[in-house]
Amino acid sequence: MNEPQSSDRIERSILIDAPRARVWRLLSDAEAFGRWFGADLRGQAFAAGQVARGPITIEGYTHILFEVRVERVQPQELLAWRWHPYAVDPQVDYSGEEPTLVTWTLHDAPNGATLVKTVESGFDKVPPQRRLEAFRMNSRGWDAQLQNIRRHAEAAG
């Protein structure tokens, strides 16, 4: 479900017919996350202060490295990391840019379902020459990724 947004943030949410513990595992276990998100994160962990990285496994994007610096992990409730949005050009060094913040939160919903919310904020600090495309591509990307986690969580039941 799309929610109102500004030019600085993308907000999405989805209702998943699966228990919070199952959704949390798919979100917080780096290897499980990579399987539905499309990144090879074998041997990685999402831990506060740590970097997780691995190649993207989605056709057409396998030359790109998924890389996040985990900010916060609150079991069963919140996972937050920073990354460089739509950093897809191998000729560009994105390390000088300020990364956006991606925050995932889980909420109980009726009948044992889980409401998943994701917010990516900080686009106003992305360099102007790539801000609009990064925002547009990540907006579409979050729509697809929330469908992916729902499909994986509900199939596991």
Q: Spatial order of the strands in the main sheet? A: 1-6-5-4-3-2
Question: Overall mean pLDDT score?
Answer: 94
- Estimate what percentage of residues fall within beta strands: 25-35%
Oligomerization category of the chains in this entry: single chain
Radius of gyration, whole Å: 15 Å
Proportion in helices: 25-40%
Which fold name is given in CATH as the topology? Answer: Alpha-D-Glucose-1,6-Bisphosphate, Chain A, domain 4
Describe this structure as you would to a colleague:
The chain has about 160 residues and is α+β, with helices and mostly antiparallel strands. It has a single domain, classed as START domain (Alpha-D-Glucose-1,6-Bisphosphate, Chain A, domain 4), CATH 3.30.530. Helices cover about 30% and strands about 30% of the residues. It has 3 helices and 6 strands. A hairpin with a 3-residue loop joins β3 and β4. The chain is globular and about 45 Å long. About 25% of the residues are buried. The mean pLDDT is about 95.
